Amino acid sequence: MELKDFLWSLITIYVCARVMGELAARIGQSPVLGELLAGVLVGSSVLGWVEPTETLKLLGEIGVMLLLFEVGLEADLHSFLKVGWSAAAVATIGVVTPFVLGYGLAIALHMTAIQAIFVGATLTATSVAISARVLSDLGKLKTAEGNIILGAAVLDDILGLVTLSTIVGLAASGTVSWLEVGRTAGLAILFLGAAILVGIQYTHLFAALVNRMHTRGRLVVAAVTLALLLGYVADTLHIAPLVGAFAAGLLLARTEHQSHIEERIKPVNDVFVPIFFVLIGAAVDLSLLNPFKPQNWPVLLLASSLTVVAIMGKLAAGFGVIDKQVSRWAVGIGMLPRGEVGLIFAGVGLSHGIIAGGEYGAILLVVVLTTFVSPLLLKLAFKS
Amino acid sequence: MELKDFLWSLITIYVCARVMGELAARIGQSPVLGELLAGVLVGSSVLGWVEPTETLKLLGEIGVMLLLFEVGLEADLHSFLKVGWSAAAVATIGVVTPFVLGYGLAIALHMTAIQAIFVGATLTATSVAISARVLSDLGKLKTAEGNIILGAAVLDDILGLVTLSTIVGLAASGTVSWLEVGRTAGLAILFLGAAILVGIQYTHLFAALVNRMHTRGRLVVAAVTLALLLGYVADTLHIAPLVGAFAAGLLLARTEHQSHIEERIKPVNDVFVPIFFVLIGAAVDLSLLNPFKPQNWPVLLLASSLTVVAIMGKLAAGFGVIDKQVSRWAVGIGMLPRGEVGLIFAGVGLSHGIIAGGEYGAILLVVVLTTFVSPLLLKLAFKS
């Protein structure tokens, strides 16, 4: 990729994301909705201005990691652990219900058992990135609802990882290796637990290290490096890197430097994060939505019934909340967006030959619809 | 490139650049020297930890553009134009003297005419990025010396562009197209003039636009976008993109938002800029410096005589300064580093078949020596 093309892509992303984000804010919506729509516009299915090159994708990945780092940095581990049981219940219901409903629907539509399992599994995903960003846009990140949604979304990521690796193993060998499944799940839970529980003992070392440095940028570079490092470790354990970055944020939230890091990481994120959301939007293939093409009808039918099931399953998850003061609807709606996690699931299914182009298109539509509907509804849920 | 490898490269770059930068600061040197040395260490000629992939190179390019944007943002256009004649004289002497000396030396060493012209031209380069960073590290960016060095380095970039395109044309066709040379030079000067003179009339539009935005990150994204945009236009005119970004900084320095932009761009640069300097260091091939290998002797001999000539030529440039209050030595030393501009020149010469591996190695050594000696000497020059 030439520097010139790269500069032009970045300029296009920044200008379009900003314009659409501002427009979304004017009509009272979350700016992230505008950024996603900007992505649809500049993507290959409409204008074709931005090609998702390797470099842009890597920058987007860094962006979403730093976004979750910032979210962790603003979170309070105590109020987070306080809603731990609610979050666990929400995550569990939010995985079991969509899976069962999706599986049943797929079987009723005469899919094979392995396809039905895969379709069910895809519906279990929650995009922690989109949930976090919408909550942040609405200023609801630090509410009980916000803590439960984020906690459940992070747990969901781990459950999703276990589910995905189970299914891929099932598709490859025809049998399930429970040893492998247990190992994957155990490693992931061990990582999160160790990162937070052990990390808390050593956060003072981070502060001491930074205090001994003299040169410019010591705080932001040290913080970013820790976020990338825990993201790297997570990736090595096959957990989403953003879970590691989130853990890094939670740890640094407890240091004396918290507010200074927050102040410095925000402009960095303003530069990185739009790239991620625009690329997510650009991955949407609008032509699948055209109802005037008869060949789209089966896909649209499958997509709409899956979407209904996907939304019902996650709304049910909201009722896992224990505290009666908390809005169950808001929690359920916050768990709706499948976002990038759904896209990854669908891509894995296609590349492993579990599903074909039609089912892939339908799952993509479910991802798009749940992702776009959540910011709209969440705003209403918090208002009432 | 896998995300995991990319994360690991970034972590390595940040940790090594920070450690070496801190060490450099401890022994009273400019941190950029440490970052360059960190690059040599992690590069392929020592540890081989960081491979300069396309993505890293593009990020480094963005880093150096944003560095020059920040320098422009901190500069004062008036005190900049006040030393305009001195800067022009320094730039002219700093191009003519190294060229004549380098050409003469090459002819004396029995090179062909075209090779001698190319060797002379390579010695004319000045790395505005390294000069600016060293001045910033020393806190001398806003002195008269700093303004003259920066102004001359920017003009040098334009003169260098003209020289390079002339030589490449000469090598390709055997004749010089003065029309083409004039067109290149004219476009470059027109761009800088237009960007600054016309831009000044419209900076209030930037302020008005940002003031109308409501969503987070409006200031830093608008500023970065303008820097990338002017960099893109510069690139289109075959000028170094960092000259365009520098012009963007000069323009925004005159808006009401200057201090807020500065505050927000700094953490962004802390994340991007080390990538550039580490990659410059990583491009150094240390094996050429080994005096125990007899096959290195001709290269080392050529390199050392070229280095003497390169340093003499730029020190002479310091005497172009008109104001008697200004340290001529500091200005001359500030013009020494060939940095990335020298590397680009050498690469073009090699790829066009003008020079062979031996001359290429010697020019690389000149680039390395002038780049590493300048921060060391500049500190002394400002002390006296």
CATH architecture of the largest domain in chain A: Up-down Bundle
Average pLDDT across residues of chain A?
86
What gyration radius of chain A follows from the Cα positions, in whole Å?
Answer: 20 Å
User: How widely separated are the two ends of chain A?
Assistant: 49 Å
CATH class categorisation of the largest domain in chain A: Mainly Alpha
What is the SS-derived class of chain A?
Answer: mainly alpha
pLDDT < 50 stretches of chain A:
none
Question: What oligomeric state do these chains adopt?
Answer: homodimer
CATH topology of the largest domain in chain A, anyone? Na+/H+ antiporter like fold
Strand content of chain A is: under 5%
The total strand number of chain A stands at 0
Order of helices and strands of chain A: HHHHHHHHHHHHHHHH
Q: How many structural domains are formed by the residues of chain A? A: 2
